[in-house]
Design brief:
By secondary structure, this protein is an alpha+beta fold. 20% of the residues lie in helices and 40% in strands. It is globular and about 65 Å long.
């Protein structure tokens, strides 16, 4: 899978999620990975449903409403992240770190600082992907992402929400597509509310090829400086416009 394909599938509209400069220890990362439930384990507890007198469909609807409420509260969001990519056997394929910035309705920037300098950001209805190693800027339309679940994080009113089942286990929310696609499931973990906002603490993206991308967030904030989205690129950057 190319760097651009990975970016479109994994980074794309994390337009509501986070990244980092200060690397967290491997022990902390391992603890969070072990704590994140699998997509199968994220099914709402049936006893809790019965106690609340909710049918499975009602429980899933309630889970979707709760997730949307948390995402809507994140009108502005910035964070640092530690990222780990593993294969189906749990072997670590790569690690990275960076920063993420979100300012609704249409500002998003994800900057991977290690091991490669990569920037993924939005402008209007377009996606921009900059690879510093080759000094190349690739431009595509947001429509190219289709119903990618990451797009749902950016727009709680997106009609593609109907193409996913939302499962909840405490403050873990898992989006599972009703039809097969590259992303098999996406799990978001939220921490305790602060001033009415529950910050995103971790994101797990399970791909159909068996690989898993795990993002651990730190230094979260609702304060975002609009100037961070004014990314300055080299004058001699090579542009690949695929719109």
């Amino acid at each position: 899978m190319s760097k651009l394909t990975c970016a479109l599938a994994v980074a794309a509209s994390l337009v509501s999620i986070v990244t980092g400069v200060v690397l967290l220890s491997q022990e902390v990362l391992a603890q969070e990975v072990n704590a994140a439930p699998s997509a199968a384990a994220a099914v709402p507890d049936l006893k809790a449903q019965m106690a609340a007198n909710l049918s499975p469909d009602q429980a899933r609807g309630a889970a979707r409403d709760a997730l949307k409420a948390r995402l809507e509260a994140l009108t502005g969001f910035s964070a640092r992240f530690k990222q780990e990519l593993t294969d189906s056997a749990g072997n670590v394929l790569s690690e990275g770190s960076g920063e993420l910035f979100l300012l609704r309705p249409d500002h998003f920037l994800m900057h991977n600082q290690s091991p490669d300098d990569l920037a993924f950001y939005t402008k209007g209805s377009d996606l921009y992907y900059y690879d510093a190693a080759v000094n190349q800027l690739s431009i595509s339309s947001l429509d190219a992402l289709g119903s990618n679940p990451l797009m749902l994080l950016a727009d709680v009113n997106n009609v593609s929400w109907d193409e996913y089942e939302v499962r909840r286990d405490g403050e873990f929310f898992t989006l599972v597509p009703l039809h097969a696609q590259d992303v098999k499931s996406l799990t978001l973990s939220f921490g305790p509310e602060q001033d009415g906002v529950a910050f995103l603490t971790a994101l797990t993206i399970r791909m159909d090829d068996g690989n898993t991308n795990f993002y651990l967030f730190s230094e979260q904030s609702t304060a975002v400086d609009p100037t961070v989205f004014d990314l300055e690129l080299p004058a001699d950057v090579e542009v690949d416009d695929m719109r």
